[in-house]
Every structure is written in structure tokens, then in C-alpha cells.
């Protein structure tokens, strides 16, 4: 991983510093780029929210080989981690590898290690085209995310997403105010419940709503028929001064647990962070920027190496908290320290 990160730092120079801790401080306001919008506080809050929780160490038990597997969308995964949808290599990551190579590296690395990567959407069109092509090549192993466009573009991309062979699709509704798209003349917008219900009814695929940060909107996601939500502030890239995902996760999960799949995204950097999110109520997590660093720095091998690192850290954390399986994670392993 040190070599992968060193290569990524060279390839992403001027766009991402590949800091020892990816916390948004050095890149505040750098959008496009890998930073958070405005002061960068929403990005930084994702990290500080997770850091406020400690793990209660337990060593008098019989847990030695914890089960990191989880069932999501009717499929068994080797660990509860998905690669979040991130695209735009040319204007966010330096452009020293192609969009096609980047996307395929993320998806193939995830498939190799028993999980799934997600693909993003945006302008120019090659972002989603590269994603859809890679998912087809990998026989449906990927989750296409579509931004909340106006109806014609939205439904066209939904049809293309279905044609990839993927079983799940998502809408990153948290991109509703994304500055970069507005600057490119392709604004996106929020969707009222009735419209979301209509959108979801038009596909046979499982449907994820990404960008849910309050219990009331989580309940609305259930009402409109979504299969999963992602508790996320879009990596701190759309609205300054939002709370971190870990700050709101317990309340959001508590409102809809058992009714809809709850995925958490924001500030996860290690297997320990994965375990914290699970203890706060998530069924699984998404990780964004670290997957980008791994893909730019080492392509598919870099992604696979990063997943191995996350898995190793997660197993260690589960053993040292007496957690036998992902399904057995409880809030009792956490202590909040603010």
C-alpha cells in the first residue's frame, strides 16, 4: 500500500495530496478536485464524527475467526464494504490514467475480493459510459448510480443501466445541488416523493437512494419504495457545514432499521471505521476517496490490496471487541467521547 500511495501521489499531483490521513484539511474548497466544498467542514465532519467514537476492547471470549460476510440485495458478500461511486478522473484526479482504466480497476478489484464497486455519473458523458461498459464486461458486477437529472435524461440512463446486466442501481440524490454540474450547464434537482415513487416503479432493479441524512427522509425513502438508502453528505462536496454521516447514522438507522437496507458513507478510512459504522446501525458501508487513491496508484491490484487491508483491520477489530460476525455487531462495543 505504501508503494501504491506513492504512485498515486505522483499521478494525482495538483488534485490530491494523498495525505497520511484523508481528512479534507489540505484540500478544502477544491471542487473540482478531491476536496470538500467551501470551508471543507462537511468533509472534515465525516472524519471527526467517526473519531468521536471509541471501541470497547474485550479479550475474554472465544471469538477467533469472525465472519465478515453479509447478505445485501439477495446476494452474499465477503465483507460489508462497497466502493462508492466516484468519477471524473480527468478533472478530479489528474487524468494520468484513463476513465476506462480507473473504473474497470475499481469494479474488477472489488469483484475479485467478493464485493461490488459503484460507478458514477456526470458530465462529460464518458463518465457514465465507461462505467456501464465496465459493468457489462464484468457480467453485471457493479452498481450504476445516476444523478437526479430531468426526466428525459434520467429515464434514458436508467434504461442503459438496466442493459448492463446489473441487479441494483442507485440515485445519488445528494448531488441535487452539485456545483460542477451547474457550471457545465447541466443542473440537477431534488425530487419530490411522488416523482421518486414513479421513478422507482419504472425499473425492475433494486433501487438505492444515496444522500439521506435525517430520519424523516429515511422514512420517505421507505414510503416511495426504495430498497436501500445511503446515509451520506456526498463526501462533503455539495453543502458546507453539514454534520458527518456518523453523527446522524444512529438516528436515521433507528427510524427505518429492518424496513430498508441502511448503508453508511463518509469518512471511513479503515476496518475499525467500518466496525464503528456497523455498530451505529449500518448494514454495510461505502468508501470513496481511498478507493480512488488505490485505483489511481495501483489499478486493479491496488484496489485488491486496499480491500485486503480493510478486511484485515476489520477482522482484528472484531476479534478485539468480541464480535463474532457482522450480524452480531451491537452498539455496546462503542463508547462516545466528545
Provide a short characterization of the protein structure.
With 338 residues, this protein is an alpha/beta fold. The chain has helices at residues 2-11, 41-51, 89-92, 99-112, 126-137, 151-163, 179-183, 193-201, 215-223, 245-256, 271-279, 289-319, and strands at residues 53-55, 70-72, 75-77, 81-83, 118-119, 143-146, 168-172, 206-210, 228-231, 261-265, 284-287, 334-336.
Describe this protein's structure.
This protein has helices spanning 2-11, 41-51, 89-92, 99-112, 126-137, 151-163, 179-183, 193-201, 215-223, 245-256, 271-279, 289-319, and strands spanning 53-55, 70-72, 75-77, 81-83, 118-119, 143-146, 168-172, 206-210, 228-231, 261-265, 284-287, 334-336. Helix 1 (2-11) packs antiparallel against helix 12 (289-319) and helix 4 runs parallel beside helix 5 (126-137). The protein is built from twelve helices and twelve strands. The relative contact order is 0.19. An eight-stranded parallel β-sheet has the order 4-11-10-9-8-7-6-5. It is α/β, with parallel strands linked by helices and 338 residues long. It has one domain (2-22, 71-323): TIM Barrel (Alpha-Beta Barrel), CATH 3.20.20.70. The mean pLDDT is 95.
Amino acid at each position: 500500500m505504501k508503494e501504491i500511495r506513492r504512485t498515486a501521489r505522483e499521478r494525482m499531483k495538483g488534485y490530491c495530496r494523498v495525505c497520511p490521513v484523508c481528512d479534507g484539511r489540505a484540500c478544502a474548497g477544491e471542487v473540482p478536485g478531491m476536496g470538500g466544498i467551501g470551508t471543507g467542514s462537511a468533509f472534515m465532519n465525516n472524519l471527526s464524527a467517526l473519531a468521536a467514537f471509541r471501541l470497547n476492547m474485550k479479550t475474554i471470549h472465544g471469538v477467533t475467526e469472525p465472519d465478515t460476510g453479509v447478505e445485501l440485495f439477495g446476494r452474499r458478500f465477503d465483507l460489508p464494504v462497497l466502493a462508492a461511486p466516484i468519477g471524473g478522473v480527468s478533472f478530479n484526479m489528474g487524468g494520468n490514467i484513463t476513465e476506462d482504466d480507473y473504473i474497470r480497476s475499481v469494479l474488477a478489484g472489488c469483484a475479485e475480493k467478493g464485493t461490488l464497486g459503484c460507478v458514477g455519473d456526470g458530465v462529460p458523458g464518458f463518465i457514465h459510459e465507461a462505467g456501464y461498459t465496465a459493468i457489462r464486461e464484468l457480467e453485471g458486477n457493479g452498481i450504476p448510480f445516476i444523478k437526479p437529472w430531468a426526466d428525459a435524461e434520467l429515464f434514458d440512463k436508467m434504461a442503459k443501466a438496466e442493459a448492463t446486466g446489473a441487479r441494483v442501481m442507485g440515485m445519488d440524490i445528494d448531488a441535487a445541488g452539485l456545483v460542477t454540474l451547474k457550471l457545465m450547464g447541466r443542473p440537477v434537482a431534488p425530487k419530490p416523493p411522488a416523482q421518486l415513487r414513479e421513478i422507482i416503479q419504472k425499473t425492475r432493479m433494486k433501487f438505492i437512494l444515496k444522500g439521506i441524512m435525517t430520519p424523516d427522509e429515511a422514512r420517505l425513502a421507505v414510503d416511495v419504495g426504495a430498497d436501500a438508502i445511503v446515509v451520506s453528505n456526498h463526501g462533503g462536496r455539495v453543502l458546507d457545514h453539514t454534520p458527518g454521516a456518523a453523527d446522524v447514522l444512529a438516528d436515521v438507522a433507528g427510524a427505518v432499521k429492518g424496513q430498508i437496507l441502511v448503508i453508511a458513507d463518509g469518512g471511513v478510512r479503515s476496518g475499525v471505521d467500518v466496525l464503528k459504522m456497523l455498530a451505529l446501525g449500518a448494514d454495510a458501508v461505502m468508501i470513496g476517496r481511498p478507493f480512488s487513491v488505490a485505483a489511481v496508484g495501483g489499478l486493479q491490484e491496488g484496489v485488491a490490496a486496499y480491500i485486503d487491508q480493510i478486511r484485515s483491520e476489520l477482522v482484528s477489530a472484531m476479534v478485539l471487541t468480541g464480535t463474532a460476525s457482522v450480524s452480531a455487531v451491537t452498539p455496546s462495543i462503542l463508547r462516545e467521547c466528545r
